[in-house]
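User: Continuing from earlier, I have the next pair ready.

Assistant: Great, send them over.

User: Here they are, in order.

Assistant: Folding the first of the pair now:
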Amino acid sequence: MKTYTKPSDAELHKTLTKEQYEVTQHEATEPPFHNAFWDSKKPGIYVDVASGEPLFSSLDKFDSGTGWPSFTRPLEDENVERREDRRLFMKRTEVRSKHGESHLGHVFDDGPAPTGLRYCINSAALRFIPVEKLEAEGYGRYLPLFEHDKDESKATSNRTVATLAGGCFWGMEDILRAIPGVLETRVGYTGGKTKNATYRDVSRGDTGHAEAVEVVFDPAKLSYEELLGYFFRMHDPTTVNRQHNDVGTQYRSAIFYHDDEQRQIAERVKERVARSGKWDGPIVTEIVPAGEFWTAEDYHQKYLEKHPGGYSCHYLRD
């Protein structure tokens, strides 16, 4: 069996980014929701970014709502050490890799069954090995863990992503998440060039980003064309950079397509809406390639579910 050791400090400085080094060597914490793996659902394993020792599996990963990758258990328990941590004037349990001695994160006792544990881990401490590369990268012994996933590949592949913008994302998400066939939603910022965009940045109106909703849906239950039918009913696609009282480029109407098929469908639906006669003015909805999507702050997620009766200018028109 392969052995794993901690590289020298000089090697770590060469191979790790500044953030990876600070997290693994100086117990830093990366920002929630703005890290590599917090919402990743790809099958594979996570190894120590420094030593390569196997730590966690996607099979044990769950959405904890915290904005960091969370697992119910380690992949190899002997590779994860637990230590008492009182750095923030409270008692916590730190987890570190045994051989790489990397700081990973902390473990809490508020996780789901079957363990009741939540390993809250920094993405910067991890390197992801997808199933298809396990053998090539020397982790082939973990392939049998994913055989059951292969049998269910059709079921798990029935997930398609759409990215839509049409004014304040609170109201849009509230309607979208209730549509039959929609599996997940999250609000954020896309279409501009500002990296790690925040609400404060986007609200200035000069980042080029639009408030948008990323929608994961099951195409066997809801087609992309049907989803766009809802989209054109829930906002006014004739107002440039405006929805009701919300004014600015961040409130523009836009469809961010993820492939050429989505582009063709979007153009077809837009043309159909334009010819329908339901709107007095021309349809100004942009149809542009999807770019990086910056997840909005947690308090924006499912805002109207948390604050019933809160502000919204969205509704489904007949």
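And the other member of the pair:
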Amino acid sequence: MKFLPVFGILGLLYVFIKNVWISKQEVGDAKMARIAKNIADGAMSFLKAEYKILSIFVIAVAVLLFFKGSNETGSNGMVAVSFIVGAICSALAGFIGMKVATKANVRTTNAARTSLGKALEVAFAGGAVMGLGVVGLGVLGLSGLFMIYSGQGWEIGEVLNVLSGFSLGASSIALFARVGGGIYTKAADVGADLVGKVEAGIPEDHPLNPATIADNVGDNVGDVAGMGADLFESYVGSIIGTMVLGAVFAGIPEFQNAFDGLGAVYLPLALAAVGIIMSIIGTFFVRVKDGGNPQTALNVGEFGSAGLMLIASYFIINAMLPESWVEGGKEYSAMGVFWATIAGLVAGLLVGKVTEYYTGTGTKPVNSIVRQSDTGSATNIIAGLGVGMMSTAIPIILIAAAILVSHYFAGLYGIAIAAVGMLANTGIQLAVDAYGPISDNAGGIAEMAELPSEVRERTDKLDAVGNTTAAIGKGFAIASAALTALALFAAFMKTAGVESIDVSQPDIMAGLLIGGMLPFVFSALSMNAVGRAAMSMIEEVRRQFKDIPELKAALEIMRKHDADLSKASKEDMEIFEAADGKAEYEKCVAISTQASIKEMVFPGLLAIAVPVAIGFIGGAEMLGGLLAGVTTAGVLMAIFQSNAGGAWDNAKKTIESEGRKGSDAHKAAVVGDTVGDPFKDTSGPSLNILLKLMSVVALVIAPSLVSLAPADEVSMLKEDGTTITITEEGIKETKEVEKQIRIEVSNTEDGTFKAVVTSTSSVNGEETVETKEFMAATKEELERKIQAYKSAEAKD
């Protein structure tokens, strides 16, 4: 256990090695380098602006947490340190991912000039840096703080209460990063698509489009930094939730033989640490030759890592937990915990595959949207909404099955360990996911740098696989969010002393309804923010097309030849080339940056303020109702929005691959994709974090809610041993009395039955003896008399 932080350092060492390797790859020509620099500068300017705002938030919340922790039993002011470290680790994970992604994108483009295999190697290496950076920082931060706090002589409950601040810091940064990044990327994407593709008729990622750089920056801030922060807080949230529930087993005799009774507390950390090794091993399996399928290569790495993790989990769980134990009147076993882990892992993979079915190109749901695009935008949107709504059924059934199976085998701890099992190989899962936006950027750079068509074909092949891996990643994130939120919810109930949530109580039902409403309000806030930012972007792009003469003239050439410049004359090409570099990319980047920073604040504060307000006004049980409501509605809304958006996106790509760009069906599909963009990249993914952040906030304030809860009764002991109890029903007096009754039954000479009952009472140590005789003609009658006497004595 002392070496757990070493596993985190090992993950970060791998990140460093891969980063050095990526840096040594060729960038390409000067034009490619200039485009890549614009993207990197835009991404870093966004992060700088975002972190400046978030640093103020972190300091303010840390001060409040310090005073809160210092003034309540079972916690202390160090919870503020945990919060700051969690926030820094989450921000650092996003920064590392962003830095390397913006370095790997242009190198992937250059590698695609050589071969598909080389391009995949570079893009996946960039994703691996993101993935291993997240798990390395997670394990290092959690295990390091846990060891420091454990050495202070605190009770395990206090250690875990203080450690939960780490998850709160990670979740807070993740929500702002996800919402801010989502608003940024979709404002740019919508502006670039509607003005560039629909109005101006120029291809996606064309250098004439002023929003192109902002769009490529958005891929990084939304899908790299945002997704990284999302899975980072899922990862640490599931571990902390499991540790809190594992602490319940500390007093059970079977656990005392090893790990100081804390085997169940250490287990999630141990699984996460070994998961780093398995993720690193999995990265070496991702290889593809020219003509090969990148999807197969990524699947080999991902599923190979999952298989190795499963084998390792069997030995770790059986080594760290007793063979069997009894808790709450039910017997559990180490093998039961292992089956719960499998349930979580299988559910995560299956939800990912179902997501792939509903969003992948060539599937029945996506083809139904393609067909209905022929009749216009309205039918395209109706079809997409229908696909999104229907796509909730199977994932919810799978998640529900995982909950039931894991609870059957290992109780609430089983549900929490299922979430850990699902996220144990987050390193490679996130590597596969982050590879997508890097490939997307590589294609954009190839288009803007006007490289040969075979380069774009290779990057498009990587990008198409990236869309699928992104959809699977989003499905995985939703499933893990549901289980993690439930694990944190259970940990909150344990900490707050809430036995059950009775929805027949009006205050709990009120909390349930408010919780169910929050995902809708949260989605509305984020989608309206995208709409407002996109309007500003559209106006800016239109202004540049109208006011910059070189752009205006180049657009006329594009329209004249229907975007096929091979037909252009020498004079036309001179006019077109004169527009190179004239687009004011930085103005579009500034619009997205300012809008996202401004619009992310209110949704983020809502997620933190509402559970605090409900908890302190309505109490722990009403807060429990709120969490139940937000988890149920939030999971459904997240699946619906993510899958509808993904299906719309691939319906558009399907029409484009059929050579129908510019057709009415294509224009309808672009509108549908534009509607789906904030669904799948802003509000949908942000809901995952909303669920977990609210549960983490509840867990952090749980000790305060316990101290504020009114006592059900007040008791006083008098000198004569009488206990006076004051309750809502009135005043009761009770006295501790021990009574023994001895009965001797005999037959008399006249045939009747006789019983001598000796009653010995002890009141506060003083004994009194009372003897009674009973006579009856029959034995049955005598028994009735004795029973009546015993009943009267019991009432006294």
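Worth noting for the second one:
Strands lie at 324-327, 330-333, 714-717, 722-727, 730-735, 737-747, 753-763, 766-776. The two ends are 58 Å apart (CA to CA).
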